[in-house]
Amino acid sequence: MSEIEKLSFEDAMRELETTVGKLETGEATLEESIALYERGAKLRAHCEKRLREAQERVEKITLSASGQPTGSEPAEGL
Predict the structure, then answer these.
(1) What are residue 69's DSSP bridge partners?
(2) Quick one: pLDDT at residue 30?
(3) Would the pTM count as exceeding 0.85?
(4) What span, in angstroms and rounded, lies between the C-alpha atoms of 37 and 32?
(5) Three-state SS string across the chain, please?
(6) How many Cα atoms occupy the beta-carbon half-sphere of 50 within 13 Å?
(7) Residues 6 or more apart in contact with residue 11 via CB below 8 angstroms
(8) Which residues pair with residue 72 across a beta bridge?
(9) Which of 18, 37, 50, 58 could join 9 in a cystine, given CB atoms 3.0 to 4.6 angstroms apart?
C-alpha cells in the first residue's frame, strides 16, 4: 500500500489543496511543478476512489407503512 493510499479522504483533500496552491503561485521550478502535478494527480485519483467507495456504502433505509424501519437496500444510481 502506497503512502497516498493510506491517507484518509480528508487528509488527501487537504494535501491536494496545498499542492494546487503551490502550483498556482508559479514559484516552483519546472521540475518541482512536474513533481507536484504528478502527486496531485495521484491524490485526486485517491480522493475519487475513496468517495466512490463511500457512495457504494450508502444505503437507503426502507420504511413500513407505519413509518418504522424495516431494513435497508443499496442506494440506487450509485
Answers:
(1) 63
(2) 96
(3) no
(4) 8
(5) CCCHHHCCHHHHHHHHHHHHHHHHHCCCCHHHHHHHHHHHHHHHHHHHHHHHHHHHHCEEEEECCCCCEEEEEECCCC
(6) 16
(7) none
(8) 61
(9) 50
pLDDT in tens, 6-51: 999 999 999 999 999 999 999 999 999 999 999 999 999 999 999 9
Location of C-alpha cell 437496500: 73
Name the amino acid, one letter, at 37: Y
Place of cell 480522493: 47
Burial 30-69 (b: 16+ CB within 10 A, else e): eeeeeebeeebebbeebbeebeeeeeeeeeeeeeeeeeee
AA letter at 3: E
